[in-house]
Amino acid sequence: xxxxxxxxxxxxxxxxxxxxxxxxxxxxxxxxxxxxxxxxxxxxxxxxxxxxxxxxxxxxxxxxxxxxxxxxxxxxxxxxxxxxxxxxxxxxxxxxxxxxxxxxxxxxxxxxxxxxxxxxxxxxxxxxxxxxxxxxxxxxxxxxxxxxxxxxxxxxxxxxxxxxxxxxxxxxxxxxxxxxxxxxxxxxxxxxxxxxxxxxxxxxxxxxxxxxxxxxxxxxxxxxxxxxxxxxxxxxxxxxxxxxxxxxxxxxxxxxxxxxxxxxxxxxxxxxxxxxxxxxxxxxxxxxxxxxx
Length: 293
Prior knowledge:
Elements lengths: L1 E5 L2 E5 L18 H11 L7 E10 L5 E3 L12 E7 L2 H8 L8 E3 L16 E2 L12 E10 L9 H17 L1 H5 L1 E5 L4 E10 L3 H18 L4 E3 L9 E3 L4 E2 L11 E2 L4 E2 L1 H4 L8 H4 L12
Antiparallel strand pairs: 1-2, 3-4, 3-5, 3-6, 5-7, 6-12, 8-10, 8-11, 9-10, 9-15, 13-14
């Protein structure tokens, strides 16, 4: 384990991201510790609930949730969308523990509690997901840092490391941003979530977040690694740390990995009275300084 410390942030980076307990499914189960810790920082119960979503999934005979394509359900069936809305973290974790060899995602911003009536603290097949208008506040800015690779494949170890290095460069360049962030691996790339002061979900603040992410994209993207500029809609999902990122086939050269939570900024870890105002004040993001990586 390598520990990197730079001023406002401390990160422990595992040499390999697959650190789940080895059970009957060979490490494809959820690692519950990072999942629960991530949710403790992410969720805002006073503002709403959170959606847990699983794509192209189905239940096996033991009630575990897997990729539909991995079950013998017919050549035309790849699985269904399963979703649930949760205001009880223990029940969310209980449902997430059912995931085996399939990716799980959560909404980054709080969702109107009315959607609990759609599927109350349990996963079920659904035709409807959280919409942007269902989000009650903009609490997080999401930087998704992805290495270039063929579509629908997992990253190689070298590609995965490139994304982690780019994430670390962003955190080192912007210590104020790092203080208000948490970060980790998506399984193939890396991610940073920056805490915002519960902005209203209105066009002006959505545009502010979009412009800021676009600026990071222009500043830190190149042919090897890109900052995804499409992660700015209010109902955006993020892979739940601890769950597997099962893209394509699990091969030795392009393996499935668990999403991880690898660091938490000091302002999140030890909250005080100060509110994060990173975007309004222009600190903690590149501003007009666009650099070449």
